[in-house]
C-alpha cells in the first residue's frame, strides 16, 4: 500500500448533494449476493429500471461487466475473489456518496468480504443493504443460462462457487429472497419497500412495471370497515352529488387520477393550475397533471359543514356512496381556473359555462368510496379499472399497446390511421402482438352526436375482425376543448395508468 498519499474528503455534504435531486439524499448500496443463476443480475437491472423511471438515480455494478473492465486482471482464486470484492466495495461507496443508489450484483462468496463492504459504507455514513438471493442450488443449476454448472460438473471450470468452491451464506442479511418463489416484480417490490422503510425512496407500496406510482384505488374493500364508515356517515353532514361529481369520484376511486387521495386540496390545486404537475405528501414522485379535479360547493353547503379537518358524507340518489375526510375549504376562483386551463373565460364554451355556474367554494380531502360505482347502462363491462385493464392486456399477451381516443363513430380516416399504426408496429418495430386500446368518450355530448351505445356497437362491428382490441370507456370531460400541450400530457398519463 502506498504511504505517500493523503485522503481528501469531499467539500460537499450529503444535504448539499440532495438539493440537486428533489431535496432527497438517497445514496446507498444494495448488495445482491447469491449463487450463479440465483437471479442477482436480473433483479438488479429490474430494480434499476424501476428507480430510474421514478427519477431516482441508480446504477448497476454487475460482476461480469466489472471483470471485463476494471477487474479484468483478476482470476478466481480466493485471493483474487477478495480483491475483486474490495475494489467493487470502493467503487460502490463512491457511487453512493455521489447520491446514487448503487446496485451490486456479485456472487461475493465470503462473508468477511461482504462485512468489509458494509463497514466501509458505515465509516462513510452511507446505508448498506445486503440482499441474499437464497435460491436453491438445484434451481440455479436447472436455469444455468450460461452453461457454467454443466461445465463445472464436467471439471472444466475450477473453483466454481457451489460446486468446487464454498459459498458462505449471510448470517444477518437485510433481506432474503428466493427467486423460485417470487416473480421479478415481487422481488423488486420487496427491495423498494426495504429502501422506503429506510427513508431512501418514496413510500409507494406496489411497483408499477412502467415506472411511476402504481394506480391508487380509493375503494374500501374490507366489509367491516365499510360498515363502520357508513355508521359514521349517519352523523355527518350530507352532500347531494350530481352525475358529474359521481363521474369524478369514480375517476379518483379507480386510480385514474393517481397519486391523488381524493379531491384536490388548495396546495395540490395550485400546483396543477400553475405548473401542470403534482407532488402529493405521501409520495415524492412528481407527476404530469394539468386538469384540476375539484369539488365545488355552494356558500350554503359550506356553512353547514364544520370547517377544515371535518368529514362529509356523499349521497347520490338517496344512497350514501362514500365520504370525504380531513376536509379543506378554499375559495373557487373561477375566472383564474378557466383562464389557466382553457386560455379563455368565455361562457359560450360548455365546460367554462359549467364552472362559472358552480359553487363559490372548493372542498378537498381524502376520499373513501364504499362500493364499486356502476351505471347499469349496459356499458359497465367497458369501464375497467387500471389494474384490470393491465391484467386484460397481459392475458392477451400484448407486447405493444397503441391507443386511439375518439368521440365519434369510426370513419375511414380513423380506420386508416389504426391500420397503418398496426402495420408499422409489426413490420418496422418488430412487435408480434400489438393490441388496440380504443377510448370512446362518454358523458356529456352535443345534441346531434351519435349516442354512446350505438357508437360502442359500431366500434365492435368495425374492428373485432381486424384487430385485437380492448375498449375502455372514458367520461367526456377528459376531452377539454382549447387544448394546451399539458392537456395532451394528462391524457397520456391516463393511458399510461393502464
Automatic annotation (TrEMBL):
Keywords: ATP-binding, Kinase, Nucleotide-binding, Transferase. SUPFAM superfamilies: Nucleotidylyl transferase, P-loop containing nucleoside triphosphate hydrolases, PUA domain-like. Residues 27-177 form the APS kinase domain. InterPro entries: APS, APS_kinase_dom, ATP-Sase_PUA-like_dom, P-loop_NTPase, PUA-like_sf, Rossmann-like_a/b/a_fold, Sulfurylase_cat_dom. Residues 381-467 form the Sulphate adenylyltransferase catalytic domain. Residues 209-372 form the ATP-sulfurylase PUA-like domain. Pathway: Sulfur metabolism. Its EC number is 2.7.1.25. NCBIfam families: apsK, PRK03846.1. This is adenylyl-sulfate kinase.
Amino acid at each position: 500500500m502506498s504511504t505517500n498519499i493523503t485522503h481528501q474528503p469531499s467539500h460537499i455534504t450529503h444535504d448539499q448533494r440532495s438539493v440537486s435531486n428533489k431535496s432527497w439524499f438517497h445514496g446507498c448500496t444494495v448488495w445482491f449476493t447469491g449463487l450463479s443463476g440465483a437471479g442477482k443480475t436480473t433483479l438488479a437491472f429490474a430494480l434499476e429500471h424501476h428507480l430510474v423511471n421514478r427519477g431516482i438515480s441508480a446504477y448497476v455494478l454487475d460482476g461480469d461487466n466489472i471483470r471485463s473492465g476494471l477487474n479484468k486482471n483478476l482470476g478466481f482464486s480466493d485471493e483474487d475473489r477478495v480483491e475483486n470484492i474490495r475494489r467493487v466495495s470502493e467503487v460502490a461507496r463512491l457511487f453512493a456518496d455521489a447520491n446514487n443508489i448503487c446496485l451490486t450484483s456479485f456472487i461475493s462468496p465470503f462473508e468477511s468480504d461482504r462485512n468489509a463492504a458494509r463497514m466501509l459504507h458505515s465509516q462513510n455514513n452511507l446505508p448498506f443493504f445486503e440482499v441474499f438471493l437464497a435460491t436453491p442450488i438445484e434451481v440455479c443449476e436447472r436455469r444455468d443460462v450460461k452453461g457454467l454448472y454443466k461445465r463445472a460438473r464436467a471439471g472444466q471450470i475450477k473453483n466454481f462457487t457451489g460446486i468446487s468452491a464454498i459459498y458462505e451464506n449471510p448470517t444477518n442479511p437485510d433481506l432474503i429472497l428466493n427467486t423460485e418463489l417470487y416473480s421479478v416484480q415481487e422481488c423488486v417490490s420487496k427491495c423498494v419497500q426495504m429502501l422506503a422503510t429506510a427513508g431512501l425512496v418514496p413510500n409507494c407500496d406496489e411497483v408499477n412495471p412502467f415506472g411511476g406510482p402504481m394506480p391508487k384505488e380509493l375503494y374500501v374493500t374490507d366489509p367491516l370497515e365499510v360498515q363502520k364508515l357508513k355508521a359514521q356517515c349517519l352523523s355527518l353532514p350530507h352532500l347531494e352529488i350530481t352525475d358529474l361529481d359521481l363521474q369524478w369520484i369514480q375517476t379518483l376511486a379507480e386510480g385514474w387520477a393517481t397519486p391523488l387521495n381524493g379531491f384536490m386540496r388548495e396546495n395540490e390545486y395550485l400546483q396543477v393550475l400553475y405548473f401542470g404537475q403534482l407532488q402529493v405528501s405521501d409520495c415524492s414522485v412528481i407527476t404530469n397533471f394539468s386538469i384540476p379535479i375539484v369539488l365545488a360547493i355552494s356558500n350554503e353547503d359550506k356553512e353547514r359543514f364544520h370547517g377544515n379537518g371535518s368529514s362529509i358524507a356523499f349521497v347520490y340518489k338517496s344512497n350514501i356512496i362514500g365520504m370525504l375526510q380531513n376536509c379543506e375549504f378554499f375559495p373557487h376562483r373561477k375566472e383564474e381556473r378557466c383562464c389557466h386551463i382553457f386560455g379563455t373565460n368565455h361562457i359560450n364554451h360548455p365546460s367554462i359555462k359549467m364552472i362559472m355556474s358552480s359553487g363559490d367554494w372548493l372542498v378537498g380531502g381524502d376520499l373513501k368510496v364504499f362500493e364499486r360505482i356502476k351505471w347499469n347502462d349496459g356499458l359497465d363491462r367497458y369501464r375497467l379499472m387500471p389494474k384490470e385493464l393491465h391484467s386484460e392486456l397481459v392475458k392477451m399477451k400484448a407486447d405493444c399497446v397503441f391507443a386511439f381516443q375518439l368521440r365519434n363513430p369510426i370513419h375511414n380516416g380513423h380506420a386508416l390511421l389504426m391500420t397503418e399504426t398496426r402495420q408499422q408496429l409489426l413490420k418496422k418495430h418488430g412487435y408480434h402482438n400489438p393490441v388496440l386500446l380504443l377510448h370512446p368518450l362518454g358523458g356529456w355530448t352535443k345534441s346531434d352526436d351519435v349516442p354512446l351505445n350505438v357508437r360502442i356497437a359500431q366500434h365492435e362491428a368495425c374492428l373485432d375482425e381486424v384487430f385485437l382490441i380492448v375498449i375502455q370507456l372514458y367520461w367526456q370531460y377528459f376531452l377539454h376543448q382549447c387544448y394546451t400541450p399539458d392537456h395532451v400530457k394528462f391524457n397520456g398519463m391516463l393511458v399510461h395508468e393502464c
